[in-house]
């Protein structure tokens, strides 16, 4: 057998055809192995599942309204699990006047070295930057005075 005909004018002999098959198989195996290796070396970051939306209600079943929250009084609720206590606070100054809250937090926080964070009230608002690095985001209070915050007691 003289060789296979590819197209009208080019001939491929058996040796070149077998080399082509070998190189193609090797390339396919390399790609097939490299994808799992890359996934192993660089694992994907799992996406956080959002917690379910819930509504806070008083013991009689009425929804909690922001105008009903006393300033500087801590309200305890459990979220997202029945065993996870959280606090809801309408923050205010020492005179009971609500103050707005704005905190800049980083994705990765640096250790605080046992030094407490001190919130300073200036002209009816509190602003704080928590030490850290990476991408940052701003957390603000809600309500008419931007003074209502909630946080987990676990943290």
3D structure, described in words:
Strand 1 and strand 2 (10-12) form a beta hairpin. This protein has one helix spanning 14-41, and strands at residues 4-6, 10-12, 74-78, 85-90, 100-109, 121-122, 125-129, 132-140, 148-152. The chain has 155 residues and is α+β, with helices and mostly antiparallel strands. The chain has one helix and nine strands; from the N terminus they run E-E-H-E-E-E-E-E-E-E. It folds into two domains: 4-41; 66-152, no CATH class. The longest helix is centred in the N-terminal third of the chain and has 28 residues, at 14-41.
Structure characteristics:
155 residues; 2 domains; 31% strand; single chain
* Radius of gyration over C-alpha positions, nearest whole angstrom: 31 Å
Please give the count of helices: 1
> Strand order, biggest sheet?
6-7-5-8
Distance between the termini: 78 Å
Tally the structural domains: 2
Which descriptor suits the 3D outline? elongated
For the biggest sheet, the summary is:
4 strands, mixed
Uncertain stretches of 5 or more adjacent residues: none
Query: What average pLDDT do the residues reach?
Result: 82
Oligomer: single chain
What is the percent of helical residues? 10-25%
Share in β-strands: 25-35%
Structural class: alpha+beta
Run of helices and strands: EEHEEEEEEE
**Number of β-strand runs:** 9
Q: In brief, what are we looking at here?
A:
By secondary structure, the chain is of the alpha+beta class. About 20% of the residues lie in helices and about 30% in strands.
């Amino acid at each position: 057998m003289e060789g296979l005909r590819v197209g009208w004018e080019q001939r491929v002999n058996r040796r070149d055809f077998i080399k082509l098959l070998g190189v193609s198989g090797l390339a396919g195996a390399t790609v097939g192995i490299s994808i799992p290796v890359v996934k192993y070396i660089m694992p994907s970051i799992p996406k956080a599942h959002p917690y379910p939306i819930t509504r806070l209600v008083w013991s009689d079943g009425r929804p909690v309204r922001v105008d009903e929250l006393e300033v500087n009084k801590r309200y305890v609720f459990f979220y997202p699990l029945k065993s996870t206590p959280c606090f809801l606070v309408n923050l205010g100054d020492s005179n009971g006047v609500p103050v707005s809250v704005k905190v800049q937090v980083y994705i990765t926080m640096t250790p605080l070295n046992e030094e407490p964070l001190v919130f300073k009230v200036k002209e009816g608002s509190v602003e704080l930057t928590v030490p850290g690095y990476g991408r940052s985001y701003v957390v603000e209070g809600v309500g008419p005075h931007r003074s209502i915050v909630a946080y987990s007691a676990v943290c």
